[in-house]
Amino acid sequence: MAHPHATGPAVDNDAHLSTENVNEAFIPPQPGPHFSSFLPSIQDTSARNSYINSTPATPDVSRPFLSEGAIQDPFLDKPEDGPTGAINKPARRRWPLFVVGGAIAAVVIVLAVVLPVTLVHKHHGGGGSSSGTSDGGAHDPTATANPESPTGALTGGNGTVIQADDGSTFTYINNFGGFWVDDPQNPFNNSAKAQSYTPSLDEPWVWGEDLIRGVNLGGWLVTEPFIVPALYEKYQNVSTLPGGQAVDEWTLSIAMRNDTSPGGGIQQLEDHYKTFITEQDFAQIAGAGLNWIRLPVPYWAIEVWPGEPFLANTAWTYALKALKWARKYGLRVYFELHTAPGSQNGNNHSGRLGPINFLNGPMGVANAQRTLEYIRVLAEFVSQPEYQSVVQAFGPINEPLMGIIGRDVLDSFYLEVYDMLRTITGIGKGASMVMHDGFLGLTPWKDFLPGADRLVLDTHPYVAFGGGLDQPLDYWPPAACRAFQVNQSNIDFGPTITGEFSAAINDCGKWLKNVGANASFPDCGPWDDWPTWTQDMKDGIKSFVMASMDAMHMPGYFFWTWKIGNSTDTGIASSPMWSYQLGLENGWIPADPRDAVGTCDTLDVPFNTPFNGSYPSWQTGGAGAGTIAPTATAALEEYPPTLSNAMNANPTLLPHYTDVSANPTLPAPTFSAATTTGGDGWADAQDTMLAPAPVPGCVYPDAWAAPQESTSFVCGAAATASATS
Hints:
The structure is a single chain. The chain is an alpha/beta fold. It has helices spanning 229-233, 249-258, 267-276, 279-287, 314-328, 364-382, 402-405, 407-425, 476-483, 487-492, 525-528, 535-551, 580-586, 599-602, 630-634, 717-724; strands at 120-122, 144-145, 154-156, 161-163, 169-171, 180-182, 212-216, 292-297, 332-337, 391-395, 432-436, 455-459, 496-498, 556-559, 657-661, 663-665, 691-694, 698-699, 714-715. It has a domain at 200-210 and 277-437 and 617-717: TIM Barrel. The protein contains 16 helices and 19 strands. The strands form six sheets. It has an eight-stranded parallel sheet. It has a three-stranded antiparallel sheet with strand order 2-3-6, with no helix packed on it. It is globular, with a radius of gyration of 24 Å. The chain starts with 119 loop residues before the first strand and ends with a helix.
């Protein structure tokens, strides 16, 4: 059942809106009064990137161009309202967690599944080693040795034949002057160029001068029903699942584990990892004129806890392949944690559709403890010198739903992550930290943490989840030019990227709005059957895409997503407007993304606020970076924050974990022909904090249950009595 719609006050026209279907049993807790002024107006329900609320409203179809986050009005023609060393910031008090009993013993976390890639647990600051899979790579039969490389690197440009790791071959097509580099003796060779106009990985990226033209690898390591429908179509009549259907990766994993028939089993997910995205995709991305990828990664790439059905550890093997292939083809990576224990937004792409238990409800703090640990493990890995040239942006969490979590709480979390990341990397080093706008829109983030070292704001505007979608094709391009501008935020906040957008001008596409949810668009038949699209339809979509790209081109964007898998029911991609690859092959995505610049001028829709690409030095890691004024953090809540929506529980008595467990260290690749290693998985040897684990003798609520259904957190004699009752 979709939630009733909610009304909210209009905010500046750089905000964003969309909504979600959630489980029928889930009635989300309401935000406190402190957040009421930020709630959006909701006009529809969808499975991708949304608000969830429960206050009724009447859709305003007279203003149909809506994107995600908060309401925006594209029709208003008004302006849109380094150095090195330790972090220079005021000391922040850490709120002491309530500890039960005497000495705390280490708790061994037993993983649900034994898998081929083994995590090495160790206490950092001492010795230790890590293991991984061979990443030696295959040689290109037509490549020539690079005379400038003392290690004899192989390299090639347009027309060369690539031999992949599995022995297959393909031709590298790149008409933009790009070239690949494969260096078996030095696997961290960063001299490849995606295009002649893109700096190689061993050259600096200059924010505001170099422009991000990127694409997401959605549906690969974190599955979504609308992106990979064939995985889910197999499990739509399963008696052991709630509702009989696989609707997210949680229920899909359960169904696969219970499937003992030939071709069943959880290993189907690794088969998907192996085949859905391959090295050839990375070569094609560079050949499409794109220069960045956004790589969504699940927390179960690191580990799972008992009771969680996800396939543990295995996705990490393919994340390593992604970093290897990105380096080979000169692509930079925005590396992003896409899921959180308990779910940060209640959407299927958080791992489990339903309640929000990240920084919300009785288990909110405990789930955030685990999430921070996974952020830390990933940050330690990608901050190693071997990976800094490839991973140049790091997103700690995808789309936290601020309408439920609350602004004060999320601000506190973001500052805690920032402090942790810059302690690992140092100032002016490592990846930029990218934080999602929480669907609040861009304007409210003005002057957030001034002085912070390379903090980037990410927004995800979509058309498809608004109302009034039945508009003529020529309506959408100028609407995109008006609504998707980010110039004002580049001035008010600093670097502001569009981490997701698509070519969709309606909500057609199988399962786009969750398994079993119907589109609101009146006639999706023609739009779902892309082989029958007319040239006018293709041209109209292409014009909309180019207008979107132009509006958000400074400093850049990432299309969602590179590829949509075929449906077993129809034999074709059933959400075609969401596939960059399909659109490129069939003419509704521009062959050269640079051609989009100037589209809005052609449509006579000027930018409300000019922006010349110049940022203050501290925003890009230069002079002043890392010096956050005490006044900027004085009003922020200490971390962990008080959760006003945690059933009025005493915050010091909320369920929590204790830091006694050895850290899971991500394994690095091994190289058959190189003398170098892939690092030990941990950039900061001074980071010796332990990982969270359950407090011995305590009984915890279900980390994934609806907050109002959570049981008490009891320890000691009370826990014994509870367990035996």
